[in-house]
Amino acid sequence: MRSVRAVTVTPGVPDSLRLVEDWPEPPPEEGAILVEALAVGVCGTDYEIVAGEYGEAPPGQERLVLGHESLGRVLEDPTGTLQTGDLVAGVVRHPDPVPCANCAVDEWDMCRNGRYTEHGIKGLPGFARERWRLQPKFAVGLDPALASVGVLLEPTSVVAKAWDHIERIGRRAEWKPMTVLVTGAGPIGLLAALLGSQRGLSVHVLDRNTTGPKPELVRALGATYHTATVPELDVKPDVVIECTGAPTVVLDAMCKAAPTGIVCLTGVSSGGRTINFDAGALNRELVLENNVVFGSVNAGRRHWEMAAEALAQADRSWLTSLITRRVPLPNYREAYAPAGEDIKAVLDFTQ
Ligand SMILES: [Zn+2]
After folding, report:
1. pTM for this structure?
2. Domain named Glucose dehydrogenase C-terminal: which ranges (predicted)?
3. Of 26, 227, 245, 341, which has the maximum CB count within 10 A?
4. What's the 294 CA to ligand 1 centre distance in angstroms?
5. How many A from CA of 265 to the centre of ligand 1?
6. Nearest to 72 by CA among 129, 17, 9
7. So what's the pLDDT on residue 341?
8. How far is the CA of 323 from the centre of ligand 1 (A)?
């Protein structure tokens, strides 16, 4: 019987990261579309899973295949949804089995009961294996020109949802945003800034780093890079997209929005840290300025398609610069160890 190489962990067990040489070939029950892996992106969630702090193997299994940021090439699709050779990425989240009101209409990103499953994270095998399968509903085709950068589709889907929900909230009244502030210039922050610039907005990005590639990447978007604190910025943003999860930055971001401003929180804080904060002043400002603060996570099908469109329109060399390391599969451990000025590390299945 054929097998694939797969990067796996035993969830909950630190240092259990291992390349399994003879992982089972993906069974047809996983989906009709058979895909050959090209690349898998690594993010903070992967670090947490590798550290044993997060993650859940599929029912009845001990090990979880990692990888939720995928890019592959279609080997066969008997459903005719995609053609052999097409670039494809897999939607991360699947609806819960109940299903809840949102999952019932395939808005799995808005699941209400938490019983959804996620490839490479929660109850479904990930994409860090040489071949995987998809059902057509969870397969997103990409422009053929995106072979070297299409692995950015998953993080782009997250910011496409953030922008989609910002714009839906904006429609509660007349809405002509001019300025967006993005806090944090990691992959999510930079991609949020990209989508802001594609909307013709004046984009400001705040980050602590004064060196490395981030300042230049922001300037290349025609955006302004800041290293001051949020209160020090001479900007009144109509939109704030918070991507750090750092408690002080989150609170400062909530206070920074212009009247009728919308603040989207995307960073997950670890919790347990308390800071002194005037909740009454924040409440007063939100009420008197009609501001909205909301959280956003994951992405639905339409957001994946919006993200594929945004990547196709973006400057290819700018996107390439976001991928600061490409690690061949045999050296997989290097991809799962954070390195200094990384923006995005990618596990490369083609070398
Ligand atoms: Zn649900």
Report:
1. 0.97
2. 147-349
3. 26
4. 19
5. 21
6. 129
7. 81
8. 33
